[in-house]
Design a protein that fits this description.
The protein has no helices and eight strands. It has strands spanning about 10-15, 20-25, 35-40, 50-55, 60-65, 70-80, 90, 100-110.
């Protein structure tokens, strides 16, 4: 049975234009972060658009280029799990001059 994911304000980031949208889930003792989904959008076609997930700063475990405006999403089944005692960072790169980006995550702890 799939566990429901409760969304919180820490699961959404929508900064000013040409600024990276970042979700940072701090390390939790003896627990690991799991992403069941990631959703994003750019207000116009981005320059150098990219969605990256890091299991701890500098350890990229997922990365895709985003080349078009509008929404996109990934559902991870099973969930994309990080290592225990490690932060999980989701970054939607800055979209370029006049382009705003947003990122949302379906996040839980195990």
């Amino acid at each position: 049975m799939t566990q429901a994911v409760q969304r919180t304000t820490s699961d959404v980031n929508a900064p000013a234009s040409n600024t990276a949208a970042v979700l940072t889930y701090a390390a939790v003792s003896d627990r690991r972060h799991v992403l069941d989904s990631v959703e994003w959008s750019y207000s116009a076609s981005p320059t150098g658009g990219n969605l990256k997930i890091e299991d701890g700063a500098g350890t990229t475990v997922f990365s895709i280029d985003v080349t078009a405006a509008g929404p996109g999403f990934f559902k991870f089944a099973p969930g994309l799990a990080g290592r225990a005692n490690t932060a999980l960072i989701v970054t939607l790169a800055a979209g370029g001059s006049g382009v705003s980006g947003k990122v949302n995550a379906g996040h839980r702890l195990e």
